[in-house]
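Dear support,

I submitted the protein below through the web form. The confirmation email said the job was done, but the results page showed an empty box. After a refresh the structure appeared. I'm attaching both so you can tell me whether what I see now is the final result or a partial one.
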Amino acid sequence: MALDWPSLIRSTLARFPAQRLLVIGDAIADEFVHGTIARVSREAPVLILRHEFTETIPGGAANAAANAAALGVPTTWIGVIGRDRPGRRVLADLRRRGVQTGAAVIAPGRATPTKTRVLAGLPNASRQQVIRLDREDAASLPPAIADALVARIRAALPDVTGVAVSDYDYGSAPSEVTALLQAWRRATGLPVVADSRRRLADFHGLTAATPNQEEAESLAGSAFRTLDDAGYHAERLRSRLALDALLLTRGSDGMTLARPGVAPLSIPVYGGRTPVDVTGAGDTVLVAFTAALAAGAALETAMRLANIAAGIAVMKRGTATVSAAEIEAALSMDDDL
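What the results page shows now:
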């Protein structure tokens, strides 16, 4: 008998306000510089833009936390952030969205990772990204900062019902944090879900991981050319990492869920297959999936909820969040979920 997915997803969303989610990881300042094309420079064959405005939006793990708050989940973010203008703007924006940031570790002298995207267009036309400039601090965390990070996460864990780790390899999820989360998960049975840009192999023994296909292919050492390939390697990676589940996101080809004892399950992408902007969509998937598990949803229900959230997110420009109300609206409009 076919399950009533809209009802299951709605009941999961209704339980979100009763959860408390901890998001751990690297906050990034996503900076968008908007400009109008004025002319071609005489100095070089490049466009001259007339600056209109600049906005800074929480990115990386900060975007994950913002998405969790938008879904109606009480959320705390803990990570390392610089005592600089991008860091101050990210923290202020998170607080405005209702995310608790009091346990964040402020690191003097450490730059907040910042990704500046220049968006250009003719007057009265949509803006297109023409270049991105990344400013990063790849140095390892000083021992005192790493110790403070672990201590603050340990202090926060007794009050949460789920943990999402959003690792962009800037230092906010060191091995000491992983060991702490492994022990907490074994002691409580509560969900810990990780998404890692380059270090997925380090996040073993947790509840689940949500890699995209590129990340999974890199770890598997093989390209996933077919749906069967995706399912086969998703299950191999799940077993290798000792996870309860692995949710593989495959862009316009949808998602594949690997679980022990059953065949991998694949579903098509929700909404249009041509995204407007995929910036931050992985963070949307991570927190939607984690929040659903924290709320007691089955793995397949959590996957389907995350799939809808991702489908909504990629149809927005820039680093975007998705609300519970938007998912409710999608459920009302689409009976084939």
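Response: this is the final, complete result; the empty box was a page-load delay. DSSP finds ten helices and 14 strands in the chain.
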